[in-house]
Amino acid sequence: MRSPLAFALVGVRHATRTRLRAASSTALEWASPENRREAASRKWGRFGEDVVPLWVADGDALAPEPVREAVAEAARAGIYGYVDPSPALLDAVCAGIGKSWGSTVDSSWIRWHPGLIPALYHCARLAGPQGAVVVPTPVYPPFLNAARDCSQLIELDLGQAGGPLDETALRATLDRAVATAADGADVVLLWCNPHNPTGRVWRRHEMEAVAEACAERNVILASDEVWSGLILDDVPFTPAGLLQVDDLRLISITSASKTYNVAGLDVAFAVVPDDALRRRYLKVGRDQAEPTHAGLAALASILNAAGGGPCVLSPPDSACEMWRRAMVDHLRDNRDAAIAFIERECGDLVTVAAPAESTYLLWLDARKLGASPGLFLSQRGVYLTDGAAFGARGYVRLNFCCSRETLDVGLQRIGAACAEARSKM
């Protein structure tokens, strides 16, 4: 017999099935909980039917139809050996980056990766044990892991509110990292724009301050821009490559994984304009795996040789652009609904720490629920990512890239958990 919590998802399952049948090629289609569990989804499969998973940065929407068709065609080929990016894909990547940066990009600058995390480790290895890696916190945990595993970690405290950059703190932290590194060893700043988990879209003057501070100290700037296709508010995205700062050693990293919900297809790329830095970057990562045939095919279905705008991931003429715009609209509505609910029903115990200008992640201050709020909530039927791994104990991150029905069930459980905690005070 199903528990009462499991019955709450019946409406979600019915709604998502209906939408799957009715959706057009540009409409959003949401997989049901059964679909996700049957497909061995990490997000859904690690829990029983009693838990609504609003944690790992993995959306519940089916990928755009052109992406699905490209992956299916790659699968039908029946040959799954090593592949290289096609000339058309290389042209599309260079055109997109070129328009984004306002300058010509050579295809030799591109380093392909089977995901974002290998790129982060490449960057941290450039510093090595004798160098230092500066990481802004709170932050996506692999940033911290890469720094600890490969080098000496120096944290730059951004605060929890997703607010303006403290340029004085930035410069002081970079100075400390340079002093920590041995003579001749590199310092790397692992930057995140837009920022995960706060959703901050760094303004142009802030990106200029970051780039100039790095160039002045010969610090390598590694800018992860994977969330740039999902900006929810009217805030311009400024790619690091647009700034054209003299003597800046830049590594720009991105992937379609978050914008188009294709993280499992394992494809990302870095752009490294400096020849000497690029040779070192290739050398420190010779042990990485290959991007997949399906991943390259998916990316080719998204990008085109006409290029994009400020963000390489959103070319205006892409066959997937209407889908992306629909997703941004849906995420904005979900974000606003989640914020309104939390402020109305939970505001004395859980507060919205950062406004989520981008991404589909809402950063919440849940310290009043105890030292491990993620555990507390999971025991009451809703799983959020605990902030401890981000360097922020007492906070949680909520993933709102799901159907509205799933979000509503999850929010109700957060509300019930807060009511329970309130009754025991």
CATH architecture field of the largest domain = 3-Layer(aba) Sandwich
Q: How much helix, percentage-wise, in residues? A: 40-55%
Mean pLDDT: 93
Strand order of the largest sheet: 2-8-7-6-5-3-4
Into how many domains do the coordinates divide?
A: 2
Q: How large is the share of residues in beta strands?
A: 5-15%
Which fold name fills CATH's third level, the topology of the largest domain?
Aspartate Aminotransferase, domain 2
State Rg: 21 Å
Q: Write down the oligomeric state.
A: single chain
Intertermini distance: 34 Å
- The helix/strand class is alpha/beta
Tell me, what is the CATH class of the largest domain?
A: Alpha Beta
CATH superfamily of the largest domain: Type I PLP-dependent aspartate aminotransferase-like (Major domain)
Largest sheet: 7 strands, mixed
Secondary structure tally: strands: 13
Show unreliable segments: 1-8, 10-25
**What is the number of helical segments per DSSP (H or I, 4+ residues)?**
15
Series of secondary-structure elements, N-terminal to C-terminal: HHHHEHHEHEHEHEHEEEHHHEEHEEEH
Overview of this protein structure:
The structure is a single chain. It contains 15 helices and 13 strands. It is of the alpha/beta class and 425 residues long. It folds into two domains: 163 residues, Aspartate Aminotransferase, domain 1 (Alpha-Beta Complex); 221 residues, Type I PLP-dependent aspartate aminotransferase-like (Major domain) (Aspartate Aminotransferase, domain 2, 3-Layer(aba) Sandwich). The strands form three sheets. Strands 2-8-7-6-5-3-4 form a seven-stranded mixed β-sheet, with helices on both faces. Strands 9-10-13-12 form a four-stranded antiparallel β-sheet. It has a two-stranded parallel sheet with strand order 1-11. β9 and β10 form a beta hairpin. α7 packs across α11. The chain is globular, with a radius of gyration of 21 Å. The chain starts with a helix and ends with a helix. The N terminus is likely disordered.
